[in-house]
Design brief:
Distance between the termini of chain A: 38 Å
Order of helices and strands of chain A: EEEEEEEEEEE
Largest sheet of chain B: 6 strands, mixed
Oligomer: heterodimer
Helix content of chain A: under 10%
Structural class of chain B: mainly beta
Radius of gyration of chain B: 13 Å
Order of helices and strands of chain B: EEEEEEEEEEE
Shape of chain B: globular
Largest sheet of chain A: 7 strands, mixed
């Protein structure tokens, strides 16, 4: 069966520090991978998606970036965090053209102070 | 510019009664609609979906209704159970872009 892992579960970082969140998927090949952010009182906002290794599409201009160094690994990064980067970050995957059914990881709660 | 809106941030219902969660969207080109359920500190899980060619889809206690003319989507839970207490997100999919757009979520509390 497929599983998706995210770490860390919780992170507290000072403003201006770098960020690296990792997401890995097991039990499937060539998944579509997504990074979402849920800010307080808001819905899930799509940040990045990837249909293959090295292929990244950015949805919202910001100081975040994403990379996909391996088929089942998706990394969200920042060189310098802003206060507004605080939120709940979710990684998700889907297979093939099944954009409609996405499976989410447990999420990382990021607090920037 | 929010294309998907859930205007009720919270809803409280007694156990055994019906829960109705609502969602409005702006773009008539959306052709697939979904509901996700999210518990605290967990990722959302897919609950139920409906395509634009239907107006109703039922799965056990959960029924989704689609009113295309009103651009309105609703989720009915009957009977509601305390374990249904969670945040419910509606989402829409445009097959043109292949992306999901989520609403803000509605927190449902089912009281025993």
């Amino acid at each position: 069966s497929q599983t998706i892992h995210q770490w860390p579960a919780t992170l507290v970082q000072p403003v201006g520090s770098p960020l690296s969140l990792e997401c890995t998927v097991e039990g499937t090949s060539n998944p579509n991978l997504y990074w979402y952010r849920q800010a307080a009182g808001r819905g899930l906002q799509l940040l990045f998606y990837s249909v293959g290794i090295g292929q990244i599409s950015s949805e919202v201009p910001q100081n975040l970036s994403a990379s996909r160094p391996q088929d089942r690994q998706f990394i969200l990064s920042s060189k310098k965090l802003l206060l507004s980067d605080s939120g709940f970050y979710l990684c998700a995957w889907s297979v093939g053209s099944s954009w409609e059914t996405q499976y989410f990881g447990p999420g990382t709660r990021l607090l920037v102070l | 510019d929010q294309q998907v809106k859930q205007n009720s941030p919270s809803l409280s219902v007694q156990e055994g009664r019906i829960s109705i969660l609502n969602c409005d969207y702006t773009n008539s080109m959306f052709d697939y609609f979904l509901w996700y359920k999210k518990y605290p500190a967990e990722g959302p899980t897919f609950l139920i979906s409906i395509s634009s060619i239907k107006d109703k889809n039922e799965d056990g206690r959960f029924t989704v209704f689609l009113n295309k003319s009103a651009k309105h989507l609703s989720l009915h839970i009957v009977p509601s159970q305390p374990g249904d207490s969670a945040v419910y997100f509606c989402a829409v999919l445009s097959s043109n872009t292949g992306k999901l757009i989520f609403g803000q979520g509605t927190t449902l509390q089912v009281k025993p």
